[in-house]
């Protein structure tokens, strides 16, 4: 709730009826302002006051949804300028531009669909396909959209400033809720009418920030609020400045800028385009559109996005279960570590380097590392014993030997006593695992 308790109190009926469960309206207002109560608890609040308070409590950046089903892309709901203040809510959507003949579009969409990356145990891909047809023929544009739609289940961005061409395309694609790009000073009335008719989100583009703010107000007055903003800038320094200003003003509750944004990394040099896209991902773009579908270009952006749009208060964690490296048998070694993703992948990589099939058991420490987990009381003999007994590893191996990180050798005695397993103290660093297995492991 952005308002103070007294500001909320001014909107309440002030009857002290206690129907909300609080002794006074002021007490309810204070609770409501702290986010610990719901406005629905007040049965006597006026419609005008409800609308005002709902608006004030909404996130500064409106939530916009593109597409349907599992591939739906959500943008907005952002509340901070800096990630460490809280977190960023929705990762930047990465869109790949397709254009040209029907065959060109079909081939590139198939290439886009193959952009799948396994990163720290999670599967990542791009999010949208942007379709552009510059022939000026609305019928051909609709055919291009149909071709792309048939080849992928990613949501589409329809790039065309002709409202009649957009309407033809939406007859084909409207049910899948694509993003229409876009409305400008010359066509916003017709484009708003078309997108409202099909109930789809729309990009509003201005020549600069002043024109953009005015256009947004006009579009909202026409009844359309599912908007994405394009400042019109294309030079990277100008885009960066505009993205930052839009976010700053949105957080100050300047409503025309309270929407997610779109940026185009359209440099002809693919390396420069990737660098531009990286800047836009780091600085608030809701969607970044680029032309390259080369995995070497997309993977760095996926990685950057993953680093920026993870919750800084929640480390990336692996599921706490048995992991197999190679094809381990009943005599394979068993390694215990924590479920912090970086720790797990370091251990897994070094076990693979040893060329000995093995099992790895990442204990659930809330996604923190070995020494941090031990210091916090989350990587303990009791937790490791629970993992050994509950994971089913005893049914997979014929021995009862477990290898723990050398940095927590102090756990070995009590762990052996609690679990009944023989505890081997491994190397302090996972890079020593290959040598350790050769020298110490005997099933």
Provide an overview of this structure.
Helices cover 39% and strands 16% of the residues. With 443 residues, it is an alpha/beta fold. β1 (64-66) and β2 (73-75) form a beta hairpin. α4 (102-113) runs parallel beside α5 (138-151), α6 (163-173) runs parallel beside α7 (188-198) and α10 packs parallel to α11. The N and C termini lie far apart (60 Å).
Brief synopsis:
This protein is α/β, with parallel strands linked by helices and 443 residues long. The chain has 16 helices and 17 strands. It folds into three domains: 5-57, 3-methyladenine DNA Glycosylase II, Chain A, domain 3, CATH 1.10.15; 64-308, TIM Barrel; 323-440, 3-Layer(aba) Sandwich (Rossmann fold).
């Amino acid at each position: 709730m952005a308002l103070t308790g007294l500001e909320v109190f001014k909107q309440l009926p002030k009857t002290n009826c206690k129907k909300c469960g609080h002794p006074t309206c002021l007490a309810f207002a204070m609770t409501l302002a702290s986010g610990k109560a719901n406005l629905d608890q007040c049965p006597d609040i006026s419609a005008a006051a409800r609308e005002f308070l709902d608006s004030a409590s909404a996130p500064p950046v409106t939530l916009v949804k593109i597409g349907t089903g599992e591939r739906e892309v959500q943008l907005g709901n952002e509340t901070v300028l800096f990630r460490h203040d809280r977190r960023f809510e929705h990762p930047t959507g990465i869109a790949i531009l397709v254009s040209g003949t029907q065959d060109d579009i079909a081939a590139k969409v198939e290439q886009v669909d193959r952009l799948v990356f396994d990163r720290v145990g999670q599967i990542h891909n791009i999010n949208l396909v942007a379709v552009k047809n510059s022939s000026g023929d609305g019928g051909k544009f609709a055919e291009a959209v149909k071709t792309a739609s048939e080849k992928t289940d990613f949501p589409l961005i329809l790039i065309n400033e002709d409202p009649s061409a957009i309407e033809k395309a939406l007859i084909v694609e409207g049910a899948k809720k694509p993003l229409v790009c876009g409305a400008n000073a010359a066509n916003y009335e017709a484009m708003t009418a078309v997108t409202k008719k099909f109930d789809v989100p729309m990009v509003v583009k201005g020549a600069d920030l002043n024109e953009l703010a005015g256009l947004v107000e006009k579009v909202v007055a026409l009844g359309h609020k599912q908007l994405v903003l394009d400042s019109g800038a294309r030079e990277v320094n100008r885009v960066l400045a505009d993205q930052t200003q839009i976010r700053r003003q949105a957080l100050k509750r300047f409503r025309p800028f309270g929407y997610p944004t779109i940026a185009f990394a359209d440099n002809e040099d693919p390396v420069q385009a990737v660098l531009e896209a990286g800047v836009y991902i780091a600085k608030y773009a809701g969607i970044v559109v680029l032309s390259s579908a080369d995995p070497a270009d997309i993977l760095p952006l996926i990685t950057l996005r993953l680093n920026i749009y993870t919750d800084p208060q929640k480390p990336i964690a692996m599921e706490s279960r048995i992991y197999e490296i190679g094809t381990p048998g009943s005599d394979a070694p068993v390694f215990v570590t924590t479920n912090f993703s970086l720790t797990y992948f370091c251990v897994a990589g070094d076990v693979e380097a040893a060329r000995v099939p093995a099992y790895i058991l990442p204990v659930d420490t809330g996604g923190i590392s070995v020494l941090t987990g031990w210091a916090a009381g989350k990587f303990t003999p009791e937790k490791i014993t629970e993992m050994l007994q509950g994971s089913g590893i005893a049914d997979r191996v014929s021995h009862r030997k477990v290898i723990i990180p050398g940095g927590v050798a102090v756990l070995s005695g009590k762990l052996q006593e609690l679990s009944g397993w023989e505890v081997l103290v491994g190397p302090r660093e996972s890079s020593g695992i290959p040598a350790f297995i050769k020298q110490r492991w005997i099933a």
